[in-house]
User: Fold this.
Amino acid sequence: MPGTLISILVIGAALLLAVMVIGPALFGAPWHPISRRDLKRGLDFCGTKPGEHLIDLGSGDGRVLITAVKEYGLNATGIEIDPIKVRLSNLRLKLAGVKDRAKIVRANIFDTDFREADILFIYLTHQALDRLFPKILEQLKPNAKILCYRFCIRGMAPDKVSADKTIFLYTMNRGTRVDQFR
Ligand SMILES: C[S@@+](CC[C@H](N)C(=O)[O-])C[C@H]1O[C@@H](n2cnc3c(N)ncnc32)[C@H](O)[C@@H]1O
Assistant:
């Protein structure tokens, strides 16, 4: 009997994990957390200033927010569609002691306002980025930066690309560049 219970629990946990990882692909991107090394590479690449506001579109387990606050002195907001990850990441923010400078909003990134961002962090897919592109152009502040991981923004020229072509930095530079957008 205990064996049956353990099997049910293991199968249940596996199903829940599958839903958390693959389910969000229907809305924008599957869950695949960035590594700590690449996250730090990206934030260093970006040249952040303490007090800037980073918004992570699809914030997963909240790791980007925690590192942004604790190690770079930023304020951070995560937008996440999956209610389980919202709960999990809220707990992680609490345990990390960054609740005063970071928050998670449960929402769909395509219906969300991110005009307050100084830095927009995006680890999604090309399809999601294509959909977001008009919103990015409409909403972001003149000098906002966009840090993309693994997927570049098609139709926008990056200011910097890492040697391994996994990190792409864009700045809006509104009013100073005329050749940026297709
Ligand atoms: C590739 S993961 C990146 C997670 C986190 N930013 C990181 O780098 O560790 C993509 C995340 O976006 C979330 N997501 C996918 N589509 C979304 C949507 N339409 N609105 C909000 N979140 C979404 C997924 O649940 C997942 O947590």
